[in-house]
Amino acid sequence: MTKKGEATLRRRLSRLGLAAKLVAGLAAGVLAAGNIVAPVVLVAIGNPPPQGMSGIPVALIFSLSAFAYLYGVWTLGVTFSALARGASLFSPALSAGLRRVGLALAAGGVISIAVMPNLLRMAGHTQGSYLHFDPGAMALILTGGAVFLLGGIIDRAARQEAAMSEFI
């Protein structure tokens, strides 16, 4: 890659990293404001929560998978920023970032399918099955697993590149 191409790539990675962190931070703030702050303020001023809003615990249960996905987006931002600062494509920053993103995607999917329905049942908010059939969440679990494995491949490639460098 030419010096100009590398500089362009690093600028783009820096922008993507900043955008990912900004999106994750803003979305987490909106989720927290809507699910924690608003119900507390409504109760504090003497107004009951709106119809269908069962309180903070249920609102937080509904937000669990979103927080897992937002952690993945934040991790992408951190990884892009590390690459923009000069980390190699075979660096621990990339492999660790990919593994964290994969775990966040898989965790969000598992939360949507298995954890959230059971927590809602325990909170008395819903009745029904123990697992929620959600093809999107199932796809995210598989994609998260693949991204996690890709992080391992990058890690292995880095070790082999280091071993090959010793021969030369």
Summarize the structure.
This protein is mainly α and 168 residues long. It has one domain.
List the helices and strands and how they pair.
Elements: H1 3-44, H2 56-84, H3 92-122, H4 135-167
Helix pairs in contact: 1-2, 2-3, 3-4
- Total of DSSP H or I helical runs spanning 4+ residues: 4
Tally of DSSP β-strands: 0
Shape: elongated
Percentage of residues in helical conformation: over 70%
- Mean pLDDT value: 87
**What's the structural domain tally?**
1
> Which runs of at least 5 residues are low in confidence (pLDDT < 50)?
none
Main beta-sheet strand count, sense and barrel state: none
Order of helices and strands: HHHH
Radius of gyration, whole Å: 21 Å
Task: Classify the beta-strand content into a percent band.
Answer: under 5%
- Helix-strand makeup class: mainly alpha
Between the first and last Cα atoms, what is the distance in angstroms? 21 Å
Task: Describe, in plain words, how this protein is organized in 3D.
Helix content is 80%, strand content 0%. With 168 residues, the protein is mostly helical. The protein has one domain (3-167). It starts with a helix and ends with a helix. The mean pLDDT is 87.
